[in-house]
């Protein structure tokens, strides 16, 4: 997985030393409330150890789950993902033909522009590596993430039940220069 650098951020692979940050991030209801069909907070450090291991296992030329860190001090601020998105259907859900982008930022960094900056860099990475289309899905009540999608130039497609067996707001980004 490539490390990606922006003006203020470094998106890098997760390290074992990130476990405490992951626990802090995902143990917060304000972060978890819009994630998944049945949101729940992380309750133990061992869950964070498992989550970091899952993040580290996504080692792919294009896809990844990056630790988003500040360039000036290296402190983590959140997670940015680019991965195949599962289609709705019978459990266990099977991959669709689409790739999703998503972000989970620590509340201390909301409003900083970090989500938009990191996501823009990952979209550029995705398109440079041959992807022609990337989707984002948000809980219909998650207006902040929908605003990020719009800032990225993603086109809102309305409510969709196409992924995760959930009703989500669907946004689509297409590689620059594609008409369809």
Textual characterization of the structure:
The two termini are 29 Å apart. The chain has a single domain, classed as Aminopeptidase (3-Layer(aba) Sandwich). It is α+β, with helices and mostly antiparallel strands. The protein has five helices and eight strands; from the N terminus they run ββαααβββαβαββ. Helix 1 packs across helix 3.
Kindly summarize this structure in a few lines.
The protein is α+β, with helices and mostly antiparallel strands. The protein contains five helices and eight strands; from the N terminus they run E-E-H-H-H-E-E-E-H-E-H-E-E. Helix 1 crosses helix 3.
Fraction of residues in H or I helices? 25-40%
What Rg is obtained from the alpha carbons, in whole angstroms?
16 Å
What does the average pLDDT come to? 95
Q: Uncertain spans, ≥5 residues at pLDDT below 50?
A: none
Helical element count?
5
Q: What is the class in the CATH system?
A: Alpha Beta
Strand portion:
25-35%
Per-chain topology:
Elements: E1 4-5, E2 9-12, H1 19-26, H2 29-32, H3 45-57, E3 64-70, E4 76-86, E5 95-105, H4 114-128, E6 133-138, H5 143-151, E7 155-160, E8 168-174
Antiparallel strand pairs: 1-2, 2-3, 3-4, 4-5, 6-8, 7-8
Helix pairs in contact: 1-3
Organism: Arthrobacter livingstonensis
Keywords: Transferase
Protein name: GNAT family N-acetyltransferase
């Amino acid at each position: 997985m490539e490390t990606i650098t922006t003006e203020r951020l470094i998106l890098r692979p997760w390290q074992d030393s990130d476990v405490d940050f992951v626990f802090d991030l995902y143990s917060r209801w304000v972060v978890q409330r819009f994630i998944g069909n049945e949101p729940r907070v992380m309750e133990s450090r061992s869950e964070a150890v498992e989550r970091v291991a899952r993040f580290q296992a996504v080692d792919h030329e294009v896809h990844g789950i990056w630790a988003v860190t500040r360039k000036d001090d290296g402190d983590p601020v959140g997670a940015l993902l680019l991965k195949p998105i599962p289609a709705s259907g019978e459990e266990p859900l099977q991959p669709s033909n689409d790739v999703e982008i998503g972000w989970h930022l620590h509340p201390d960094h909301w409003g900083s522009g970090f989500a938009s900056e990191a996501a823009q860099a990952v979209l550029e990475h995705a398109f440079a590596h041959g992807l022609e289309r990337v989707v984002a899905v948000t809980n219909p009540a998650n207006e902040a993430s929908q605003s990020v999608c719009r800032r990225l130039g993603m086109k809102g497609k309305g409510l969709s039940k196409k992924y995760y067996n959930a009703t989500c707001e669907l946004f689509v980004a297409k590689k620059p220069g594609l008409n369809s």
